[in-house]
Design a protein that fits this description.
The complex is a heterodimer of chains A (about 425) and B (about 1200). Helix content of chain A is about 30%, strand content about 20%. Chain A has eleven helices and 15 strands. In chain A, the strands form three sheets. Chain A has a six-stranded mixed beta sheet, covered by helices on one side. In chain A, strand 11 and strand 12 form a beta hairpin. In chain A, helix 1 runs parallel beside helix 2 and helix 4 packs across helix 6. The longest helix of chain A is centred in the last third of the chain and has 20 residues. The radius of gyration of chain A is 26 Å and the shape is elongated. The radius of gyration of chain B is 83 Å and the shape is flat. A five-stranded antiparallel beta sheet of chain B has the order 2-1-4-5-6, covered by helices on one side. In chain B, strands 7-11-12-3-13 form a five-stranded parallel beta sheet, sandwiched between helices. Chain B contains 33 helices and 13 strands. By secondary structure, chain B is mainly alpha-helical. In chain B, helix 16 runs antiparallel to helix 20 and helix 21 packs across helix 22. In chain B, about 70% of the residues lie in helices and about 5% in strands. The chains are: A alpha/beta (about 425), B mainly alpha (about 1200). Chains A and B meet through helix 2, helix 6, helix 7, helix 9 and helix 10 of A and helix 3, helix 5, helix 6, helix 7 and helix 8 of B.
Amino acid sequence: MPKLVHAADLHLDSPLLGLERYEGAPVAELRHATRGALDRLVDLCLAEEASLLLIAGDLFDGGWRDYSTGLFLVERMARLREAGVRVVWIRGNHDAASRLRKHLRMPENVRELATSKPESVAFEDLNVVVHGQGFAEAAITDDLSARYPEAVPGAVNIGLLHTALDGREGHAPYAPCTLSALVDRGYDYWALGHVHGHEVAHRAPWVVYPGNLQGRHAKETGPKGAVLVSFDSARVSSVEHRALDVVRWARVAVEVPSAATLDDVADAVRTRLGAESRAAGERLVAARVELTGRSPVHALLCADPERVTETVRAAALDVDGGSVWVERVVVRTEAPRERTHDAAHSAGPLADLSRELAELKADPAALEAFVAGLSGLGELSRKVRPLGGVGADASLRPAASVLEEAQELLLARLSELGT
Amino acid sequence: MRIARLDLKAFGSFTNLSLDFSGGAPGGLHVVYGPNEAGKSTALRAVRDLLYGFEHRTRDGYLHASEELCVGGLLEGPEGSVYVQRLKRRKDSLLDVDGAPFDEARLRRLLGGVDRETFTQSFGLGHAELEAQGERLLRGEASIGETLFDAGAGGVDVRRLLETLKLEQEKLYLVRGKQQEINRLLDEHAKARLRSQEVWLLPETFQKQTEELNAARAELARLTERIAEARTEQHRLRDLKQALPALRRRAECLRALTELGELVLISEADGERRERAESKAAAARVAVVRLEDESERSSRRLAELDVPVALLGIGQGRVVRLSDAPGRTRKAREDLPRREADLKALASQARASLARLGRPDAPLTLDAARLSTAERGRIHALATERDKLDERLVRARERRSELQRDLDERRAHQARLPEPSHGAALERVAALARALGSVEEPLAALEAEQAALALRAEQQLRAIRPPVRSLAELEALAPPGLETLARFALEARGLGQRSAALEEERQRLATRSAEARAVVRRIEGTGDVPSEAELGRARVARDQVLGAVLGAWQGGSPFDVEGAGRLGERLTKADVVSDRLRREAGRVAELAHARAEGELVAGLEADLLTRRAELERELELHRAAYAAAWSGAPFSPLGVEEMRAFLDQRARLLELVAEGRALEPKLGRARADRARLESAVEAALGPREGGESIALGVERCAAAAAREARLASEREELLRSLDALAARLARESRELAAAEVALTEWQAAWSAALGPLGADASTPPVVALELLTELTALAGYVKEIEVLSRRVNGIRRDEAELATEVEELARAHGVPFDRAAPDAAAEEIVARFRRAEAARAERERLEAEAGERSALLAAERAVLAEAERELDELAARVSAASPRDLPALEARSRRARELAALVSGLEATLVDDSGGRSVAALVAEAADREAPELAAQLDELAREIEELDDEIGRARDRVAGLTAGQRRQSDADGAEAAQEEQTLAAAIASRYERYSTLRVATALLERAIERYRVENQGPVLKRAGELFPRLTADAYRTLRVAREGTKIVAVRADGAELLPEALSEGTRYQLYLALRLASVERFIAGAEPLPLVLDDATIHFDETRKRSTFAVLGELAERMQILFFTHHEHDRDLALLAAGGIVPAGAEAVAGAAASAAAGVGDAAAGVGAGARAFGHELSRAPGAELDALH
């Protein structure tokens, strides 16, 4: 039975975000993650003896800064050519024709569909017709699918489309379309791209997002890869997702309700990360560790977050040969007993401090003004913002969240001093 | 909220310790005294843990297991009181009085919303905090706001926190910094961005590199081609140069060949043939000459030879016989006489043998000596059988008589054995003895045991104290129980201990009283001491006069000189007293202290007397109760311990009586057994003799029974052996009869066997056997005589026959013969025959040799002819005139062949070395070429190749470099650089977040400090300014803000303003305490008051300031509960006096409370009357069990 592989959003050679280097961090395994994932995609095509590889946009992350990205792709496409695998791809918002003008001569087994209008390519030996249209420019707001041709009777019809289907949350609303429109088109399989999570939006006909090939930051957690589609001369018979990522992102909540010391925290972290690492197999795990629970160490954790991060990272180094990279450590613990301080009924400087905080929290404008007025901070924020990615995220962190952390820090330090 | 009672049920070192803080509501100053290590801090923690729950890791779980820790308390709030208890566990740790879960929210409401930290910090003040804050004031770094904040928050050192926060920020980032983490990372990021742009591979670069690579590859191909050509040319020239000498040699050889001219070549084989033919011809010629000579010599010898043919006719066989005969006949002739003598001796021996056989006349033949083997065997067998038969008969007779004798003896013995008697009675005794075992010893032992018990009981009864007349009386006695006695003992011990404690306290008070008196005496001894009272009196006197004077002035009276004088006098006196008071303040204070101590001790001693009387009453009651417990006893009781011993003895004695009674049934059984066995023995043996024991009777019965058994078995055995003997005797008689029959049969056989021997039947076997031996000897003699006779006759016959034959031959061949000595003629005949034989043999040899020689001669002649023919033929083939010319021709042929071979070898080498070129081509190429010219051309080529090699190397490097560059282009340098940028960005982001948190926290804290200052500086500083003079016993007037506005200053009584760092240590503590108390007051003004817990907070205060501090605390205790922990006995007493002095009605009760506390009882303040506001408590680690017993 013939097979095809459907992938999207490779973002070849784009860096992984948010991983700061630290002593003992598995640096080498981080390099070339997107290239590694592409290699695994090629391996999958060869191992499954797929006839066709479909790439539904965002093959590249943007205009190449480096020609080698293209050369690398050509090499891998040539490997597929040797095995008789044909490739059809379209441009997405990241590698739209207007953003990525550089021409690269692809091997003859690779076919890019037009960006000006929908184009169909028939593979008679497989009885398959692929219809699709790439992005001419990044911000396409029209429904491209509306102009896709009618299905070819008697053949397996596949639609290749980069789209924010029904305005998928968290994704730019490019080339929007509705599920019902796609279902009604009469195709057998819609190979979509753009949304980075794997999703089967509809069966019979199939409407599928494979998700991106390699997670690139802490929000893209879990297995990432492509979809393997089996079909016969008349219909699609099975669809299965295959994990191909090289680095796996994970948000790891570690409950520390009974920890009394940092060593206890380290033990709990080691156990949880061990489980995470085993689940990810041979891959490097990039973990955001969140410490949670009502815990006696709450004050200790809030008083010195830096030491906590060091402790957690050191614990991660002990996990299964150190194949875990701790992206960051988030303290979300609570004090062992509810904070009973009732500002309205209490007096004294600490009560005043609490009142101060409560008032600032209640008045966002005052809070913004307070934070903006802090010398040094604004200036640094202006330096950090242009770094993009995590730098921009950090500089744009809501003032309320900063205030929350500052409050925990102060209370923890004051209680440390007082007892 | 206040704590009415604190129960340390299981906490720290305490078990079931209860502290009653109910007195003094709504406030009350509770002074809890405990020596160091008594657990003051533990009690403080108990208060906190009760209200807010146990810490996860408590310090107080060392005596009691963590899950058993429990602290309880009766809490009073505005809405009534509630009892709660706290356990150390995760869920439902707060319980009500019945152990049911208690709502935490309710407790929180009772605490007015104050959380654990605030309670700990705002309502707890320890000596350590005072010291730390005093130290901080000394450093003088803190601003007013910070100082107020610290005092309000319970000594947090907010300044240090601010500094730490700022330091952490500065480590991360400074606007114009270089080394700070973020500054450094930003710099690295900028560099990384530059670096990544450097490693980007631009498409134009890629195109250019590709073109360069193609050009470099083309150049490399061109150079490779050119160098290949040059190398080919180099090989060609090198080959040519190498070939030149060989070509020259080849030409020389060809020339020499030409010079040899035309000739028929003679092959090497023909040459060899010629040499072989010549040598063959020469050898044949020599052989012919030698053979002809030998032939002639042989013919001559044949002619000389003569052979006698007749003589040879005798024949070889006869000649041999003739030659042996003389020796043989001579030996026979010598042996003959000895043999004849032997014959004669044998004949006489045979005759003698015949005579012994009894047949002297019988002929000497073999028949006379012959007897068949069967006959001999029969005689031998019968002789042997006769011996055996005789032996058999003898033995049978002997055995029969022996058996008969034995049988007779045994029958006699049987007749002698006694008759069997009866043994049944004896058996019965034995069975009974086995069943019962020994009967006499156990009975005796039981009787002895019973006697011993009775004796011991009697002895113990005599020894018991107090004495009792009889066992029955003792048994009838109903004494009190052991527990009752233990209770009396415990009571007695408690009373004793209390008595001792009272005595100890009395001595301590006496010492303190004496010390106080000594101080008063010492001070009074150094002159009178002014007192406040004296000053008061002087002032009252002054004021009276002043009042009178002023009144007079107001009434318009004229100036009264006397009054003025009196006023002046009184003023002076008051001033003098005041001045002295100031000057001698030390003495005044010490005296006042000593007197106060004296009064205090006197009060305590009075209370002691009352408590001693109470104790005496309790003792009396105790004694009466004890006597009542023993009513009904025939004696009056001794002390508890003695009566415990009496009860022990009584119990042991009653045990002995019971033991004696328990023996009776055993004794009855033993006596019955003895009677049964006794009657059985008497039935078997008859009545016993006096004194014989039953055991002896049983033994005798057993011996008799054994004897009877032995006799019965002997009788049985004898009967069995008599039967056996009779049977054997019958068998032996049958055997004897059989032997006799056999003897009769033998005699008949013997008579028959002796017939051939010629002996009669009576010949005994020994004689018959001897006759047989003699007959054998005779047969041997006869056989020897026959052999010897035959040999003597043979010798004589041989001699005669030889003589006849020799004579015949001698006559025929003319040899002289003498009849007497035929041997000589025989020898001559033999000699002549040998000579004739030799002549015939030589003739035959010579004739054979002549034949062989003539054949050899013919062969040699043929060889010679053949060789000569071959030589002629060879010469003809090469057209030589004669065979003699052939060697010279052969030498020329050989030379021509050598030259041709040389040329051919040279040509082969040339072809090989020139890469396959033909010789003709080589010759053509080499024409006119000389070696030097070729060498020069080769040098030129080598140079060119070397240069080309270099160029190719460079071109290759270039291609490799460009290829590597191309390969690198597909490497992810750009992507790696981008990753590096992102890695740095992540590091910056995380530090930026940290920085922003720290920055905001710092700003918030500064803001809170300022806000607290603004809101509280006025009221707190004002109230602290009022408290400070009181705490310093008016050495200072007030507190205020310094002129520069950021610091607090203390204003001395003389108006001087001192910064905190300029104050003495104690005064700094008092300054801080004033601020702290003012803050607490402010706190409770707007909220529910909580108990204020002070721990040794006045240690470094002097006596006067301690007193005034306690007075201030006493006032504060009217509004809020104060728990004051101290380990100074003096401070405790001072606090109680100072605080209680304000309310005279409570003073006595306070003294009572203090005294009770000293008695070592956990809480003795329970009985203090209402109205008091200061209460004493003592902490002790009295174990719970003891507490229970004493209560």
